[in-house]
Amino acid sequence: xxxxxxxxxxxxxxxxxxxxxxxxxxxxxxxxxxxxxxxxxxxxxxxxxxxxxxxxxxxxxxxxxxxxxxxxxxxxxxxxxxxxxxxxxxxxxxxxxxxxxxxxxxxxxxxxxxxxxxxxxxxxxxxxxxxxxxxxxxxxxxxxxxxxxxxx
Length: 152
Prior knowledge:
alpha+beta, two-stranded antiparallel ribbon, two-stranded parallel ribbon, 6 helices, 6 strands, extended, disordered C terminus
């Protein structure tokens, strides 16, 4: 059946430059408390469901990929979630090798995801890790700063 649908749509797909048939074009009907998400879920519930689908695919990749964890990109998602959902999302993602988080409001990001912060403010990029290394060098004993190691 799928093969027939592909053959029937091939001309139109070539003409339009996109695929018209396949699982990526199927509608997925999700429900919360027996009601369809589309039209009944709150904004926070809708975001939570979208994130749950993404995290499920990340978990599948994590379990099956010999290359290791996928890189998670959380682009300003914390602004859309309440405090409880933020904490639960952070708990689910903190164990991944690389999690890239963007946020307009830094306070929206749970603390456990603050391992390495790069800030962009009015076109200026600052790296808190570099700032910490500068502070560590400034506070190191004189012998460490001179030789890179403590003289014995």
